[in-house]
Automatic annotation (TrEMBL):
The keyword DNA-binding does not apply. This is Methylated-DNA--protein-cysteine methyltransferase. The active site is at C142. It is found in: Cytoplasm. CDD domains: ATase. The keyword Oxidoreductase does not apply. InterPro entries: MethylDNA_cys_MeTrfase_AS (IPR001497), MethylDNA_cys_MeTrfase_DNA-bd (IPR014048), MethylDNA_cys_MeTrfase_DNAb (IPR036217), MGMT (IPR023546), MGMT_N_sf (IPR036631), WH-like_DNA-bd_sf (IPR036388). It comes from Brevundimonas faecalis. PROSITE patterns: MGMT. NCBIfam families: ogt. This enzyme catalyzes only one turnover and therefore is not strictly catalytic. According to one definition, an enzyme is a biocatalyst that acts repeatedly and over many reaction cycles. PANTHER family: METHYLATED-DNA--PROTEIN-CYSTEINE METHYLTRANSFERASE (PTHR10815:SF5).
Length: 183
């Protein structure tokens, strides 16, 4: 049964080395969405699909969440690991998103390996679709999934961002270094 009252979330905008991010949190401080500002329409579609009507109020995310985002972009690649996330989505999607959080920074997995990790090795295409519908980019690291031959495949934030994030994390020959300050 759909809710009659819209979900109410806070929308924070944070500058990063790869563009402004949109960080959506709930009243308890759980992250509900993380996307790039040039993909705001996509983020809103995903929020509406997951929760029905939503109300976003501009404001600051909890300081611990902002600090974790800043720490990640300055090189603490495990800073996002402890953040609480909540999503809508199907049970299958949530299982894919939970498995994504087990991929260590600096590693990439194929869609096939991700499908095996959730116990559904034949569901490679469905895993790819769930990966692409992830509403909490970077924190739920869908950018760490690559093609079976190691090639960079689609990324909702754009392939250049995916390339930057993987390099930042030391994957695919990247340096893992970045200069960043949280405003």
């Amino acid at each position: 049964m759909k809710k009659t009252q819209p979900e109410a979330f806070t929308l924070d905008r944070i500058a990063t080395p790869v563009g402004q991010v949109l960080l959506v949190t709930d009243a308890e401080g759980a992250v509900r969405a993380f996307d790039f500002s040039d993909y705001e329409a996509r983020m809103m579609r995903l929020l509406n699909r997951h929760y029905g009507p939503v109300t976003l109020t501009e404001g600051r995310a909890p300081e611990r969440v902002r600090a974790a985002v800043a720490a990640y972009f300055t090189g603490d690649l495990t800073a996002l690991d402890g953040l609480e996330v909540k999503t809508g989505g199907t049970d299958f999607q949530r299982s894919v998103w939970a498995a994504l959080r087990t991929i260590p920074a600096g590693e990439t997995w194929s869609y096939g390996r991700l499908a095996q990790a959730i116990g559904k090795p034949a569901a490679v295409r469905a895993v790819g679709l769930a990966n692409g519908a992830n509403p909490i980019g970077v924190i739920v690291p869908c950018h760490r999934v690559v093609g079976a031959n190691g090639t960079l495949t689609g990324y909702a934030g754009g392939l250049e961002r995916k390339r930057w994030l993987l390099a930042h994390e030391g994957s695919q020959g990247g340096t893992g270094q970045a200069v960043f300050a949280l405003d």
